[in-house]
Amino acid sequence: MPNRISFAGKGGTGKSTLSALMVNYLLDRELKPILAVDADPNANLNELLGEKVTITLGEIKEELRKSVPDSMARYDYVEMRLHQAIIEANGYDLIVMGQPEGPGCYCAAHSFLAQALEKLMRSYQYLVIDNEAGMEHLSRLNLLEMEHLIIVSDASYRGIITVERIAELIRSLNIKVEHLWMVVNRCPDNFPRQLSDLAQEIANRQNLKLLAFLPEDPQVLKFEALRIPVFQWGKTVLKEASYSAFQQLF
Ligand SMILES: Nc1ncnc2c1ncn2[C@@H]1O[C@H](COP(=O)(O)OP(=O)(O)OP(=O)(O)O)[C@@H](O)[C@H]1O
Ligand SMILES: [Mg+2]
């Protein structure tokens, strides 16, 4: 079974940034093969990785709703389209889920796609999954078992409290997670002791492993604005800090 590493957490906490840094980390450590999965409908992981999206799985689903060529067995066709959606990047692959289907569309083609996706995912040793803020799509994706799930929080009281709710939600969705982590991102230099204590308290109560308090790094905003992919960030404060945190996983 591949190592599935998934990032969850409320909006804007740093899930995509940390997903991209995880891909970079795995590559640097030569831990391969890697599939990065952008499971957020408002995909932007590709930008952090410096890749252009050609076709999303959502678009393929739309297509399948309309027609499948007669000449080809349906499963083979779906699998072929899925393979065309894989972006072969430098040392890893990327797939973008895009918009989920509307309600009431569970035709055979869609279950073929789910099947083909599962088969595809099994062929990678490392899966890095960037999620949207909600958790529901994990069940849509059939991602109900994973090795590492990292709940990302910002450095605020409300952010840290939300981690507890997400941990409870994960349990209620019956997602089996071998290692459930918590990371507090964007911590300023003078991060208050009360907040780190609160994070520790929630981690203990929810049986989470506290992965790290990652620093606020002004360079990240600059790189984002200039659309510089993580691979070209050099030894920035956040990259260094996240790498030492990720060592606890692999
Ligand atoms: N440690 C950090 N220091 C400074 N800025 C950061 C840090 N981590 C993330 N950011 C910035 O915070 C913003 C949100 O980050 P990101 O897009 O990774 O969050 P997200 O959780 O994926 O958001 P969404 O829920 O919208 O998908 C971005 O502008 C990013 O550059
Ligand atoms: Mg994101």
What's the CATH architecture? Answer: 3-Layer(aba) Sandwich
Radius of gyration: 18 Å
Shape: globular
Distance between the termini: 15 Å
Q: According to CATH, what is the topology?
A: Rossmann fold
What is the overall number of helices?
Answer: 10
Kindly give the count of domains: 1
Give the biggest sheet.
8 strands, mixed
Q: Mean pLDDT, nearest integer?
A: 91
Spatial order of strands in the largest sheet = 3-4-2-5-1-6-7-8
Low-confidence stretches: none
- At the fourth CATH level, what is the homologous superfamily? P-loop containing nucleotide triphosphate hydrolases
How many E strands? 8
How would you describe the overall organization of this protein?
With 250 residues, the protein is of the alpha/beta class. It has one domain (3-246): P-loop containing nucleotide triphosphate hydrolases (Rossmann fold). It is built from 10 helices and 8 strands. It has helices at 15-28, 45-49, 57-66, 74-84, 108-122, 136-140, 157-172, 193-206, 218-225, 237-246; strands spanning 3-9, 34-38, 87-88, 93-96, 126-130, 145-153, 176-187, 209-215. Strands 3-4-2-5-1-6-7-8 form an 8-stranded mixed beta sheet, with helices on both faces. Strand 7 (176-187), helix 8 and strand 8 (209-215) form a beta-alpha-beta unit. Helix 1 packs across helix 10 (237-246), helix 4 (74-84) packs across helix 5 and helix 7 runs parallel beside helix 8. The model has no long low-confidence stretch (mean pLDDT 91). Magnesium ion (MG) binds at residues 15-16, 40, 44, 130.
